[in-house]
Amino acid sequence: MKLHSDKVTGLVLAGGRARRMAGRDKGLIELAGRPMVHWVVQRLVPQTDSVLISANRNVERYADLGFEVIRDAEDGFLGPLAGISAGLTQAATPWLVTVPCDSPLLVADLVVRLSVAVPEKGTGIAVAYDGNRLQPVFSLIHRDLAPDLEDFLHSGGRKIDLWLDRHVWARVDFSDHPNMFLNINTPEELADLEKRLQL
Fold first, then answer.
1. pLDDT of amino acid 20
2. Contact yes or no for 182/195 (Cβ under 8 A)
3. Band of pLDDT at residue 100, cut at 50, 70 and 90
4. Are 130 and 173 in contact (CB under 8 A)?
5. What is the structure's pLDDT at 18?
6. 80-90 and 146-154 are packed helices; what angle lies between their axes, rounded to 10 degrees?
7. Which of 60, 40, 57, 52 is nearest to 10 (CA)?
8. Residue 65 gets which letter from DSSP?
9. How many alpha carbons lie under 13 Å from residue 63 in its C-beta half-sphere?
10. Closest Cα to residue 164, out of 180, 181, 141?
11. At 83, is the secondary structure helix, strand, or coil?
12. Are the beta carbons of 46 and 128 closer than 8 angstroms?
């Protein structure tokens, strides 16, 4: 099923602690003169009806980008599933596409390729695959799965792969776009990505 953008809400996951970046909020780190999240949002907007940003700190700075900022329902930095849960609850469309705030090289057809893999009717999940492993923070998820994800989190579940296994999901091969999965965890990786953007 190929979804039109008006059926999809984008969610940028920016709610983590960024331990490997000395606690700096990765989405707000400057990349070639702009916050990294700006690069992500810029590529996500044309593919979606609207964009949400999941953030648990620096909420005002994220809001300055002009998009709705949502927080996890529970405190404690419970991982990406908590952000996804909040996104599914807030989404005004049937589908939610999730991306991390520190992967600024999103492909222009991310939503189209993910949506082709989901069922024609009913709920489902499509997950990106980089050729070596799953990349579940790049996913397309039906809004009707929100209650199940809340139950999973309330039961203490935190691992995305365990939650996926409760549902029908499809693996979508993006091995032809390895740069999409480049993310920033160290100052060295940031410098390297800036060089790539200047080429």
1. 53
2. no
3. very high
4. no
5. 56
6. 140
7. 52
8. T
9. 9
10. 141
11. helix
12. no
**Strand boundaries in 80-124, DSSP class E:** 95-100
| Domains, the chain, with CATH or none | 5-198 (3.90.550.10)
Output the CA angle 32-38-39, nearest 5 degrees: 65
Nearest to 9 by CA among 78, 80, 86: 86
Give the pTM.
0.93
**Proportion of the chain above pLDDT 70, given as a percent:** 93
- Quick one: average pLDDT of 14-40? 81
Give the separation between CA 38 and CA 30, rounded to whole angstroms: 9
3-state helix, strand and coil shares in percent for the chain, rounded to the nearest 5 = 40, 20, 40
Distance CA 194, CA 32 (A): 6
Instruction: In whole angstroms, give the CA distance from residue 136 to residue 128.
Output: 6
Calculate mean pLDDT across residues 92-116. Answer: 95
Strand 30-31 versus strand 8-13 pairing type: unpaired
Distance from C-alpha of 127 to C-alpha of 118, rounded to nearest angstrom? 10
Which residues does 195 contact at the CB level (< 8 Å), separation at least 6?
A: none
DSSP letter for each residue of 150-162: HHHHHTT---HHH
> Which DSSP string corresponds to 12-40?
EE--S--GGGTT--GGGSEETTEEHHHHH
Q: What angle do CA 27, 74, 85 make, to 5 degrees?
A: 70
